[in-house]
Design goal:
The chain is built from 5 helices and 7 strands; from the N terminus they run H-E-H-E-H-E-E-H-E-H-E-E. The radius of gyration is 16 Å and the shape is globular. It is an alpha/beta fold. It has a 7-stranded mixed beta sheet with strand order 3-2-1-4-5-7-6, sandwiched between helices. It is 31% helix and 23% strand.
Length: 185
């Protein structure tokens, strides 16, 4: 069963806000940077016919595969390494990214957006830092060279015809995050 930690609560908020913009329930979700698969756990709890793909870096992808296979052995989920994303060929209703685009440099995010655009999900759901991650003070320092902000993510998807249908901050999203929901008309 679901344990209610911060990640679970963030996902529940994201799905709740997404529901404001739906005419029918999405069934196929692709997540980039999905960690151990908490979104998959929620989706299977809501609808056993959900399909979930989680692309992440090892060892998280290995942990997620083990966790979801153990918790939901009969459900259709796929956990892969991030470098396999360009070969994704299945239809997707919702692309999800929570708090991992902000960990990347702008050129990396731009590349992922290009790949996601080819997959052509109906909805983009992005929960990331409004102002981006802190800049590193040196080449070896903690942080990023150039922060990826929520507005940067929005612009990258807009280039491919996605339009904002929800941009949630306070009071819906607490802290430094912005929940961005985009849709291709």
């Amino acid at each position: 069963g679901a344990r209610f930690n911060r990640a679970m609560m963030n996902y529940m908020l994201c799905l709740s806000m997404l529901s404001r913009h739906l005419t029918e329930r999405p069934r196929r979700f692709l997540e980039l940077g999905g960690g151990f698969g908490a979104l998959g756990e929620i989706l299977y709890g809501l609808n056993r016919e959900s399909m979930y793909w989680n692309y992440d870096l090892p060892p998280l992808s290995v942990v997620a595969e083990y966790y979801l296979d153990t918790a939901f052995p009969d459900d259709e989920h796929h956990v892969r390494s991030t470098w396999e994303l360009p070969s994704h060929a299945d239809p997707v209703d919702v692309f999800v990214n929570t708090y991992s685009f902000q960990e990347m440099e702008p050129h990396v995010v731009k590349n992922y957006v290009e790949v996601v655009n080819k997959i052509s999900p109906e909805f983009i759901l992005s929960l990331n830092s409004t102002n981006g991650k802190r800049r590193a003070k040196s080449a070896q320092g903690i942080g990023v060279v150039e922060p990826v902000t929520s507005s940067f993510i929005e612009r990258q998807f807009a280039v491919h015809g996605y339009e904002v249908c929800g941009n949630y901050k306070d009071p819906y999203q607490r802290g430094a995050g912005t929940l961005l929901i985009m849709r291709r008309p």
